[in-house]
Amino acid sequence: MPKIYLAPLAGCSDLAFRLICREYGAKFAFFEMVDAHSLIYESRQTFDVLETCPEDKPIAAQLLGCDPDIMLKAAKRLLAIVKVSSIDVNAACPVTKVIKKKCGAYLMRDPSGLYKTIKKLVSSLDIPITVKLRSGFEMEDHKKLVSIAKNCEKHGAATIFIHGRTRSQLYSGDVDYEAIRLVKENVKVPVFGSGNVFNHELAKKMFDETGCDGILVARGAFGNPWIFKQIEDYLKDCKLPHKISMASRKKALKRHLYLVNKYRKGVESSKVGIMRKVGIWYSKSFKNAAKLRGLFGQARSYEEILALVEKFICGV
């Protein structure tokens, strides 16, 4: 059966998000991306990102950085804190502040440091090391992408994840399925496709167009934890997903909010900020969605948000 993973999502895939996705069908997840420097210098916020529980397994970590020595030190620090199935090297993050540090997708512009990092981690740690790439930096360059992927494999990468957009595209525009297909055809390690996996049909398209071994579900899981089971069922026997009832959506939203309230660390305003975001994710499926989004955005406590859910959403 093709593999369907919950992607690492900075600022989104916290413990509550991972647990709600697992409860509705996700079988494998990543922590949020972790900055190597922050981990070494023991940032409290970074430690909070690594919070987990027995139900949150299996799980992998993703490190952001460009210095091989710092990445190794961070990886060792991470493994002293939490047990993970693998560690991914992020060479895909397109955010400007990350690029300015010559990290993330910048590593595809000058991949020599990426290869050194993979080699150092593989030779020093007894755990699979994977890498996440993009289809290119400023423009599509299939030849360069294939070369980078092959060199990542050569230096020990156990799996290659590819977001089918360039750094310049960020998260919009068409997904380059051909780029992912070419990598799959030119390496022996498993290849996962990422980008635009918003429903079961787009997931199947990713598999059909690329021949990939698995996919990463990212924004498609926002307010939609059913997506993993829907994709799995559709790939298995082309079973079309049932329409999710308002009662089921309301139940999932309340459960997600409960998990945020239970597990989210930090100041109360930060916790409420996450709850607002969660409410907005789910609200697109409800009547009076625009009004509800506005009200969620103004709520100041868990109790206020729950009251809005009960007042404006029909169902359980």
From TrEMBL:
Domain DUS-like FMN-binding: 6-310
Keywords from the named record: Flavoprotein, FMN, NADP, Nucleotide-binding, Oxidoreductase, RNA-binding, tRNA processing, tRNA-binding
Highest taxon of source: Bacteria
InterPro entries on file: Aldolase_TIM, DUS-like_FMN-bd, DUS_fam, DusB-like, tRNA-dHydroUridine_Synthase_C
Catalytic activity: a 5,6-dihydrouridine in tRNA + NAD(+) = a uridine in tRNA + NADH + H(+); a 5,6-dihydrouridine in tRNA + NADP(+) = a uridine in tRNA + NADPH + H(+)
Cofactor(s) of this protein: FMN
Similarity annotation: Belongs to the dus family.
Role according to the record: Catalyzes the synthesis of 5,6-dihydrouridine (D), a modified base found in the D-loop of most tRNAs, via the reduction of the C5-C6 double bond in target uridines.
The name this protein goes by in its record: tRNA-dihydrouridine synthase
